[in-house]
Design goal:
heterodimer; A: mainly alpha; MetI-like fold; 13 helices; B: mainly alpha; two-stranded antiparallel ribbon; 14 helices; 69% helix; globular
Chain lengths: 275, 294
């Protein structure tokens, strides 16, 4: 009996390891290819040996498309947008849960609209609007249209609803102003949600492609995702080693954020939205 | 509901104002324009607009290219959703066992959540590269056929489908895992005592109990396949060869920014909106929960 259980256990581990290998294979192969020079990518038959030209390849990827600048742009856009979204979401959720005002449900419904209106359903007029604002090829165009968030507002609303009424009453009796209550009581309770939302929004914004593609046109305003496309289209053949180096560099920041915040994400976000 | 409200009258309006302004200026107004201009045709980008009624829509629905793109997108989204969910559920069940190294395993499986569509596109384009791709080589060894997605449209379609499904595994697994963890332990234990096999208790107890999550993910995957795969297509296939991977968002992009047919593009936007409304309606009808879109 004990033996059978042990066998089952080992089988389980093996199955998981095989799954992990399959899921990671595209990335592993990409890493391997990124350590070779161009000639090294053409070995036949293909193999899984690491090359010795990693530094040269990554340097080349970095300089070919001015990767430093692209990463900074992506970082500025992703961090600014995530932070502003979190602030606006907390403000709106705070208003909806802790105040009674006319038009509250209209406001809440309006926030929900963001859900229904992703970039493709309004792409041409939004582009026109950016032209009218003289915002084409600017950080404004890359960030402002994304500032409202249904996800975030719902997340904080649901969390605020779990705050006991007694706490609010106590705060009121103590003469605590609403904004002090928000700062001193609610926000300290919300760090898990804030962390989770930061992960979701950072990854989402870092990975945007369509909107930056049409709204930026100078090299200085391009973002990292577009850098990969640029690497893909330089030269007459695909220089896979350099493309993969660019892809891996671009993947690292959101991956780090995921690794740091995954626990918070699963507790603060999935458990809440997923129920 | 919370009955202990603060008494301030103006403050709540100030608190919701920034969100509402952003929504009106950057979301509602542009969509209103898209809707309005979908009934117009004109020179490039807003010059000499002529009211044409439903002509843009009629043109779309009588265009074999648009209908093909619509059918292709539905097939693509369905495959991405069902393949992705089946694999993800399997992985979530594996990860949900009490085993050593579970946290590490979880991370090693959910990391694709951090991936962009563009990166998913280049990784799979490399694996299937006609000359140096690992999978191309394995297929050659196994079947003797040298596959080439740059000339074979069906293969290109398969590749973007695999890449898109693969990329969403992390997201799906996270939600499935938390749903499985929410199943009361006593239920599963008593089933075991009553002699149910793990197979039976999975299909008879776990699956029914996670149906809400399943439905939530079903809709989210359709939305994902419709709206968050543009980069993958643009970087891997550019809709080709021919139009074999031209999904709706890609066609919209081309009509708007390559052919400058704003009237048609706006009509396509409105039709995409109809899909979102449909999906969201289903979601509200069958699950009562907020939605994760970003």
């Amino acid at each position: 009996m004990a033996n059978r259980k042990k066998h089952k256990r080992i089988l389980l581990h093996i199955t998981i390891w095989i799954s992990i290998l399959i899921i990671c294979l595209p990335l592993i192969y990409a890493v391997i290819i990124s350590t070779r020079d161009l000639q090294g990518t053409f070995v036949s038959p293909p193999n899984l040996k690491f090359g010795s030209k990693a530094i040269e390849t990554y340097k080349k990827a970095w300089t070919t498309v001015n990767m430093g600048r692209l990463l900074i742009n992506s970082g500025i856009v992703a961090i600014t947008t995530s932070v502003v979204k979190i602030i606006l979401a907390i403000m709106a959720a705070f208003a909806v849960v802790f105040f009674d005002f006319r038009g509250k449900y209209v406001a809440f419904a309006a926030v929900f609209l963001t859900q229904l209106l992703p970039v493709p359903v309004k792409i041409v007029p939004t582009f026109e609007l950016m032209k009218a604002f003289n915002w084409v090829d600017s950080y404004y165009a890359l960030t402002f249209p994304y500032f409202a968030t249904a996800t975030g507002t719902f997340l904080f609303r649901q969390f605020f609803l779990t705050v006991p009424n007694d706490l609010v009453d106590a705060a009121r009796i103590d003469g605590c102003s609403p904004m002090t209550f928000l700062r001193k009581v609610l926000i300290p309770l919300s760090w898990n949600n804030i962390g989770a939302l930061f992960l979701v929004e950072f990854v989402y914004m870092w990975n945007r492609y369509l909107w930056p593609l049409i709204i930026t046109n100078s090299e200085e305003m391009r973002v990292a995702q577009i850098g990969i496309k640029m690497l893909m289209t330089t030269g007459s053949i695909n220089q896979w080693n350099i493309i993969m180096a660019g892809a891996i560099i671009t993947l690292i920041p959101p991956l780090i954020v995921l690794l740091i915040l995954q626990k918070t994400f699963i507790e603060g976000f999935v458990m809440r939205t997923g129920k | 509901m919370n009955e202990s409200y603060f008494k301030e009258k103006i403050l709540p309006y100030l608190l919701v104002l920034p969100s509402v302004l952003v929504i009106i200026i950057f979301l509602v107004y542009p969509f209103y324009e898209a809707f309005k201009l979908s009934f117009f045709q004109g020179g490039a980008w807003g010059t000499n607009q002529i009211f044409v009624g439903l002509e843009n829509y009629i043109n779309l629905f009588s265009s074999p290219k648009y209908l093909a793109s619509l059918g292709r997108t539905l097939l693509f989204a369905s495959l991405v959703t069902f393949i992705g969910l089946a694999i993800s559920l399997g992985l979530a069940v594996l990860l949900n066992q009490k085993i050593k190294g579970r946290l590490f395993y979880r991370t090693a499986i959910i990391w694709p959540y951090a991936l962009s569509a563009v990166i998913a596109g280049v990784l799979w384009a490399l694996l299937f590269d006609p000359s140096i791709g690992l999978i191309t080589y394995v297929v050659k060894v196994l079947t003797g056929i040298r596959i080439n997605w740059r000339t074979n449209g069906n293969l290109a379609f398969v590749i973007i489908t695999i890449a898109a499904a693969w990329r969403n595994i992390g997201y799906n697994v996270i939600f499935f895992m938390s749903a499985l963890q929410n199943i009361p332990k006593q239920v599963l234990e008593s089933a075991e005592i009553d002699g149910a096999s793990s197979f039976q208790s999975f299909f008879r107890i776990s699956i029914p109990l996670i149906t809400p999550t399943m439905f939530f993910l079903l809709i989210m995957n359709y939305l994902y396949a419709f709206f968050r795969t543009f980069g993958l297509v643009d970087v891997a296939t550019q809709g080709g060869p021919g139009t074999s991977t031209e999904i709706l968002t890609y066609k919209l992009y081309k009509d708007a920014f390559v052919f400058f047919d704003a009237g048609s593009a706006n009509a396509q936007s409105v039709l995409l909106f109809a899909f979102i409304v449909g999906f969201t309606y289903l979601q509200f009808k069958y699950t009562q929960r907020g939605v994760f879109y970003g």
